[in-house]
Amino acid sequence: MDVAAAAGVSRQTVTRAMNDMPGISSATRERVQQLAAELGYTPSRFAKGLVQGARISLGLAIPDLTNPYFPAFASSVVEEATQRGWNVVVDDFGHGSGSGLDAVTRLAPQVDALVGYLGERSSDAQTMMGRRPVVVLDYPAGRAAGGICFDYSYGAGLALERFQAEGRRRIAYLDSDQEGPATTRGVAVAAAAAGAGMEIIVRRSADSAPAARDEVRGILAEHGGIDGLLVFNDLMAAGALKGLHDAGRAVPEDCGVIGMDGIPLGELVTPELTTLALDLRAVGRSAVDLVDNLLSGAIHPGSAEANLVLKHQLVLRQSA
Amino acid sequence: MDVAAAAGVSRQTVTRAMNDMPGISSATRERVQQLAAELGYTPSRFAKGLVQGARISLGLAIPDLTNPYFPAFASSVVEEATQRGWNVVVDDFGHGSGSGLDAVTRLAPQVDALVGYLGERSSDAQTMMGRRPVVVLDYPAGRAAGGICFDYSYGAGLALERFQAEGRRRIAYLDSDQEGPATTRGVAVAAAAAGAGMEIIVRRSADSAPAARDEVRGILAEHGGIDGLLVFNDLMAAGALKGLHDAGRAVPEDCGVIGMDGIPLGELVTPELTTLALDLRAVGRSAVDLVDNLLSGAIHPGSAEANLVLKHQLVLRQSA
DNA sequence: GCAAGCAACGTGAACGTTCACGTACCCCGG
DNA sequence: CCGGGGTACGTGAACGTTCACGTTGCTTGC
Question: Cis peptide before A140, with omega less than 30 degrees from 0?
């Protein structure tokens, strides 16, 4: 410790001065503090962490901060973590920063727990994190050691019911092409449609508004009679609205549109988006709560309480 | 180190096994690795950091992740930092998590450099960070030790010119009520208007779409003849579009609207938003570049190169 | 048969901080 | 004058890792 030598005192005295501890005269305290400031001394967070034990830092793995869903979610995670005095290390694995697994590789050595949209790789993530808590959101079939997933069957049912109630018969579902052959949502929608005895058209596009816009134009070119469109998420639904407008279809008169997620964007587009909404802040809060309980040992990885299932709510606005 | 005892080897051997270093038989390596996995052993990041020296972590202080501008910016910061092998600790000081200064207080002990929208408190931030680099975005009058700011006078000029070219005469500016008596943007707009010999109406609202929507209804109630509206940012501009629609004003026919920032949201609203756009990824990239150069000593805090001024570009879409 | 060489492993020391002590010194009361 | 009790400081030790060396023991070559 350089400051100790410069001030002619012991390291312990410097510690006392920097942390405002008792057992030091105010004269030396100020002298040491000023000297520290002059020398640009900053206590090493590593040494501090080593001796003081865990200051918790939470890893947050996000597929794409550019998609407004994720900041909405991240916002509540950060808020909730901040309240607990944790800090949050964010990794965005979009834009060529690799896969979710790369994000976990980067985060694992740096954090005490992990929360994230990791898609298929959740078990690898648990392996890399060892005994440390991992909360996977929107995990695919099967249980995660800890996780939150969504009851898409229920949500899809709500949406299809709505379309039917409106008398819509030619329904299409626009899926994301991100995960493997079909997304979790995709299979749920297909199942719900089959259950309701409906035949629906399924198309996929990249998870962005422009891609959805283009894809919708394609759908309409092939299937002109579509009068209901369910979309993978609200961002793509916003693009879909544009695509319908491009093709001269009026929403909701010619074609109803229902999105998923319930992000604030839905209220800003025209017509305002009917959507299967989640309580986004509740999702973040639940994720951090899970981590907290896993850390404290209040609940155990793999147990029933470590897996939450949240339901969507159909928020009716203008588009359907 | 528990694993060392359990495996009956020395700590050094464990180190060699965990880090795939030479000088160890593959038999012992695997035995140690498996034992480590069973015991749930995770190397302490603190001890590692202490002995190996700095793994850089970058603090990112964000006023409100809920406002789509900030994730757009954060996304490029995270991407750029990830490329350098840094990790990013995010703090959102919206939603009652205090002020920017609170965020800095939380981040300062944990990071090697700081980037953020800190508003007025940038000098306090530098004090808390000592010699470590601080890059302040959108700092108010006066220079920051390191920072990026925007030439709002230039941008405001572009917008007002556009309104004039369209023959619009009754211009209003909707400001944010976040910072003190008037925002940096507010004074720039006022100055640009005065320079152009224009008289403009200035109103303020909270920095959110619903607040802007309400405020715009208020403006129209008082000043019905408004035919041009410049707005603090794109999010508020999106709300303003809704407000104009509520009041039965057609955009751009009855009233033109120009936003600021150039976030992707602008292309999803109807009509699509004409805006003073920034290259958002360039902003993030520049911020991280600055930090990098400050860390390496290539440029010095307070020097001319440590302060960047970026200009807006008027992107014409439908709203003006 | 003996040293050289190499592979496999162990042994302090160090990183920078805090914790639990120990030690001067001063002030007072008796 | 002596001891008790405070205040202001200093002194190992410890946290868990890695680094730069040592130290075995076995092979190899002549």
Answer: no
